[in-house]
Structures are given as C-alpha cells and as structure tokens.
Amino acid sequence: MHAPNVEISRDAEALAAAAAELVIRAARDAIEKRGRFTLVLAGGSTPERTYSLLTGPERLPAVDWSKVFFFFGDERFVPPGDPASNYGMAQRSLLSRLPNAAARVYRIPTEEATSAESAAAYSGALGRYFEQAPDSTPAPQFDLVLLGLGDDGHTASLFPGKPAVRVADRWVTSSPPGVLPPPVDRVTMTYPLLNAARHVVFLVAGEKKAIVVKEILKENPGRDKYPAAGIVPAAGSLTWLLDEAAASRLTRR
Ligand code: 6PG
Which CATH number does the domain housing residue 226 bear? Predict the structure, then answer.
C-alpha cells in the first residue's frame, strides 16, 4: 500500500460533503467497471451527516442505487430498532430514503442468541453474497469501507487490548464492549476482511480525536496501542478525511 491520502476539510459539515462526493465517485467507478458497488457503512455518529447528504436532491440522482449493496463494519449487539444500533442510524439517515433498498442491505443479525453467533451468521451471509466459503482466504474485496475512529484509537469494534484485534482466521468476530459507550457487546469485521478492501476511508471530526490522528499518521504506534493503525489495505488504498479540528495536531508546528 502507498502512504495514506489525507484530506482536510474546514469543519464537520465540509467533511461530510467531501465524504459524500467520495462515495459517489467510488460508486460510479465500481458500477462502471464491475456492475455493482459494495459499500461497508461505518457506525458511530460522524457518518450520519454524510449519509443524509447522499440522499439530498442533487446527490441522489448521481448514483444508480439499484446497483449498490450495503454492509456494516460493526454493530452494537442490540435490536435493529434500538437507538444505539448502527443499522438503525444508517436506516434513518440513508437506507430508508432510497427506493427499494431493503433487499440490498446486509445488516449484522443481532437477533441471534449471542454476539458470537451473530458474527458467525454474518460471515455466512457474506460468504453467500460473495459466493465463497465463509472465512476463507483471500477475503472478499469490498469496493469501499467507511470507518470511524474512537478517541481511544479503536475502529469498527476493534478495541485496544481486546481479542478481536488478534482474530486472523475469521471475517467477522464478536467483541466485548470497549471503554467508550454504549457498554454493549459488539460484532465487528476483522483485519483480514477490512484490509482486503479496494478502498478504505476514515471519517474523523473533532478536536478530541486530534492526538490519536497525529500519532497514527506520524508516529507508527502499532495496532496494539491503536487498532485503527492496523488498517493497512493489502492491495487497496487508504484515505483519511479529517476536519481541521481533528487535523489540528498534524498541521501545528
Ligand atoms: C461504533 C463504531 C465505532 C465508531 C467510532 C467513532 O459502533 O461505535 O462503528 O468504531 O465509528 O467510535 O464514532 P463517532 O463517529 O461517534 O466519534
């Protein structure tokens, strides 16, 4: 992989617009080249505005949404209607606003009895979608993976010091809660799957993330300290979309 591409937007609103434009470009390119676009959505709060902007009157017609397939990088182990559900956030801000999207949405099934069973069920669903054995190597290549960054350096639900960071033989795994809210079990894609993607994009806003952003981009902290540092696409590209607050320690002398 080449050095990551870092793009800095003025504020969170400009960051969301830049991210929406990036998604549109990636979607058009993938649909032109391969006839479909496989998009892994991030949870948390930062991407919500990006998702809403994608369905605005000028952007909605820019993509043939009937060829877009939606997946989730991680999920909180709560029902889909729970306010903490990553699927719920994406459903409200994006998916429910697209015509007939439901059949193309692959959410992490939190109805299973345990988060481990949910993870296994999601690997199975991905295997059926990509027509390969679940958890096999090489992992399928998503066209675009969107990720967030926690103040503790986590991404998806790969939390510092937790076993999910070590999982190398599965595409999806369960994880106990990290230190940040909400304190519920998680289900998360693993490094082998995330790093197989054609393009991975971090969306990061706010001063609280500035120290971690600087360490990851300048100091090579390693994934044990900051799991987000382990996102190194094997053959794909990596982009960090930051707002000025999140980038403030990169640019400061
Ligand atoms: C989750 C996530 C998580 C998130 C970061 C950043 O389920 O919480 O997917 O990895 O992306 O914690 O979250 P914010 O965007 O809310 O800061």
Answer: 3.40.50.1360
Task: Look at residue 87 and tell me if it is in a domain.
Answer: yes
State how far the alpha carbon of 209 is from the alpha carbons of 17, 201, 247, in Å. 20, 16, 8
Q: What is the pTM of this model?
A: 0.97
| Ligand 1 pocket list (CB less than 6 A) | 42-46, 74, 76, 86, 148-150, 154-157
Two tokens, residue 160? 């510092």
Tens-place pLDDT, residues 225-245:
999 999 999 999 999 999 999
- Strands annotated E in the chain: 5-9, 37-41, 68-72, 74-76, 144-147, 172-175, 186-189, 199-204, 237-243
β partners of residue 9: 243
Taking the C-alpha atoms of residue 65 and residue 100, their distance in angstroms, rounded to an integer, is 9
